[in-house]
Every structure is written in structure tokens, then in C-alpha cells.
Amino acid sequence: MRIGIYGGSFNPPHKGHTSSAATAAKCIGLDRLIVIPSGMPPHKTFPKGTPSPEGRLEMTRLAFRDVENCEISDIELRRAGESYTIDTLREISDINPGAELFLIVGTDMFLTLREWKDADEILRLATPVVTLRRADIKAEITDEIARQTELGATPGLIENDIVEISSSQLRSGFPERNFTWHIDERVYSYIIERGLYGAKPNFDWLRFEAYKRLSPERRIHVAGCEAEAVRLADRWDEDADEAREAAILHDITKKLTAEEQLALCAQYGISITDEMREIPKILHGHTAAEIASASFAASDAVKSAIKWHTTAHDGMTTLDKIIYIADTIEPNRDFDGVNELRRLAYSNLDAAVLACIDTVIKELLTDGRRIDTNTLAAARSINPDYNPADYKPN
Ligand SMILES: [Fe+2]
Ligand SMILES: [Fe+2]
User: Fold this and answer.
1) Which ligand is nearest to the CA of 288?
2) 179 near 51, Cβ under 8 Å?
3) What integer is the mean pLDDT of 96-124?
4) Residue 393: is its pLDDT beyond 80?
5) How far apart, in whole angstroms, are the C-alpha atoms of residue 245 and residue 370?
6) Which positions ≥6 away from 251 have C-beta within 8 Å?
7) Ligand 2 center to residue 187 CA distance, Å?
8) Residue-wise pLDDT tens digits, 179-235
9) How sure is the predictor about 82, in pLDDT bands with cuts at 50, 70 and 90?
10) Ligand 1 centre distance from Cα of residue 88 (Å)
11) Which of 219, 247, 220 is nearest to 231 (CA)?
12) Ligand 1 mean position, distance from CA 393 (Å)
């Protein structure tokens, strides 16, 4: 039995880690690969914003899920106090008598290996295998291999496809909405969902995720809505990034049936009014808002804009108004009066909201359908005397 052991902080894990481990496993001909997120490293603390041990364990599971014969172990996370490789090796060796152990390490670790606690015993219990990612330090590695060989070890060297990314580079990019395909998508989703490392969603990734849930026609509308929302945000000094996020996500549940919407309402504890039951179209704003918050780290402001984009409501924020209007006037919309509304949206935001609401209300009245109380309240919060019968846009 040939067992490979691959440890690391995995804070977060990325494709450099998985490709190193998978390449090493193949080259060594491993029967099993044990991936071990490290406990508290000796003489070190984890950087600020590091998720809980369970978080690193789960991200590691997600990152390595497609690597063959691979298992993730919490052996070091369960251990109290500082965590030493020798303790891990002893434990694995004890429960796998007769197994041949290989310690897979990156170059930095390999070069300091002889300084680790009980290094002699480490070299006796396991064969070090270094995965080389930076060709420029090959000479240093070769020297170190020679030194370890003198100590009786037979270290292996594996040259891997170069993935020049580090966990710390990733961490510092997350708040700037950076995303790279060097991180597994599911790991990235996990980070965004929980807001780890202060991460904010990357817009290309967000579009990719949102568009998966939309019909092709709806994607065109949402793209138009995004462009319009950003323009309006610039015009009205609102946060363009938040406007973009809200626009990208505002219709993510639009495709769902009324039953599916109601199931989501139950899941997220959305209380359903008689009006929502009677006009199921209203539901998609509410359900999309909850998903935006739960899965895409939407702020309360973004959540509110998504929630109210269908009906509007009393006391709308500027962002609420922007999304409400962008949804109506985005460049793909074509109806009588749309150009007048577009002009108004850039000269008087409240007047534009009122005009949009009036258009909707008149349509509902013509069709003999019910007017949502929030819609009427929104109109009257702008003009207390608003009455659809005598309203005239100015
Ligand atoms: Fe919508
Ligand atoms: Fe929409």
C-alpha cells in the first residue's frame, strides 16, 4: 500500500494544490492520497479573516472532490495546540502498518524540512516528494535533495504544470472582486456565500451564475437592465457596483413556477400575503432577494432593490428606485412613452418612478387586475394626492 500525505493550510485551496497532489499521486503510483488541512502551524498564526477549521476542511473537500483515490482528513484539526507533521506521520503509520508513506510537499516546505520537529524520524517514516512549481529554484531543490539523501532519505522530485498563484494572492484579491479560474468554482461559491476573506462577488462569475438560471430572452433583458442601472447609478451618485449586482440578480427566480416560488418562500420564511398569492408574479422579487443574500452575499441595500423591483414600495431608497426604473426602461424595452420615461429617469428620479408606477397601474386597470397595495403606497409616498384617474406625467 502506497499512501501519499499532502498537508497545507488550504486557506483557501486552489488548483495549484490539487494539480500538485494529483500529479504526484500519479507519478508515485499511490493507492491512497490523504489530504490534511493543517491545524495551528508551529510558531505561526493564521492570517486575519481565516475561516474556521471546519471551513477550511469543507473548502478542501470541495477542491479535491475530483482527485482520484483521495480522502480528506481532519486528523490535524482535531489535535489540540500546535500541530507537528511528525505527530501526523506517527498516527498514520500506526494505523497503516506496513504501508509505504510519501510526504508530498511544496518547495518552501521541502527546503526547510530538515528544521522541522524530529526531522530524522520524519525522513525515516516517509519519503519526501517535492512538487516543483518554480523552475528558477531547481538548483536549490537539487542541493537539498542531495543533503537529505546523505541522511538516508530518497526524496522524489516532481515537476508540475506551473500554477503561479498563491492562497495569499487569492485572499487579497477577493475583496476587490477578483476571481481566477485557478480557484475551483465550488470553493469560490463557498467563499462568496459565507463572505469569507471579505470577498465580494466577481461580476463575470456573478453573471455566469445568474444567467444559468435565466431563459435566453431574459438574459438579454438582464444585460440591458445592468447597463441601464449602472448609468442611472452614475447619474444619481449611487454605488454603481451595488446597482450592477442588483440588476444582474433581480430576475434569477423569474423562470420558476408559482409552486416553486411558494416552496422558496417556505424555505426562506417569506410571509405570503393574499396579494402575493393572487399575483404570483410578485413573488419572484422576494425569492430572488433571498437567494441573492443567501448565495451571492448581496448587501441589505441590494436585497431591498431586488425585493421591490416588481411592485415598488413606500419609502424606496435611491437604489430601489434605480433598479425599479432600469427594469422598465432598459434599452430592450419598447412601449408607448418609453422614451419620455427614459428622459425623465435622468432628470427627475422620483417623477420617473411615479410615471413608471402610473404606467403599470393603468395597464392593470385596463386589464381589470388587482393593484398591489405596495405599488399604490409607493406612488403616494412620492405624491400624496396621486390618483391614477387624474395623473398626468410632467
Ligand atoms: Fe422581474
Ligand atoms: Fe426584470
Assistant:
1) 1
2) no
3) 91
4) no
5) 31
6) 214, 218, 221, 222, 225, 284, 288
7) 29
8) 888 899 999 999 999 989 999 999 999 999 999 999 999 999 999 999 999 999 999
9) confident
10) 54
11) 247
12) 24
Question: 276 or 6: whose pLDDT is higher?
Answer: 6
Q: How far is the CA of 250 from the centre of ligand 1 (A)?
A: 6
CB-based contacts of 339: which residues, under 8 Å, 6+ apart? none
Q: Of 91, 90, 84, 82, whose CA–CA distance to 113 is shortest?
A: 84
Amino acid (one-letter) located at 69: N
Length of the chain: 394
| Cross-strand partners of 166 | none
Looking at the CA of 329, name the nearest ligand: 2
**Residues within 5 Å of ion ligand 1, judged at the Cβ atom:** 251
152 Cα to the center of ligand 1, angstroms: 69
83 has pLDDT over 90: no
Longest dimension (CA), the chain: 95
**Taking Cα atoms as reference points, which of 256, 338, 244 lies closest to residue 296?**
244
**All domains in the chain, ordered by first residue:** 2-165 (3.40.50.620), 211-382 (1.10.3210.10)
Prediction pTM value: 0.87
Query: What's the average model confidence in pLDDT over 242-259?
Result: 96
Going from the Cα of 210 to the center of ligand 1, the distance in angstroms, rounded, reads: 13
Distance 312 CA to ligand 1 centre (A): 11
Helices 300-307 and 240-249: crossing angle in degrees, nearest 10, is 50
Ligand with minimal distance to 327 CA: 2
* CB-neighbour burial class of residue 176 (10 A; exposed 0-12, middle 13-18, buried 19+): exposed
234: cell is: 452614475
Spatial distance between the Cα atoms of 366 and 319, rounded to a whole number of angstroms: 30
Ligand whose nearest atom lies closest to the CA of 323? 2
- Give the mean model confidence (pLDDT) for residues 278-290: 92
Provide the pLDDT confidence category of residue 147 given band limits of 50, 70 and 90: confident
pLDDT at 44 over 90: no
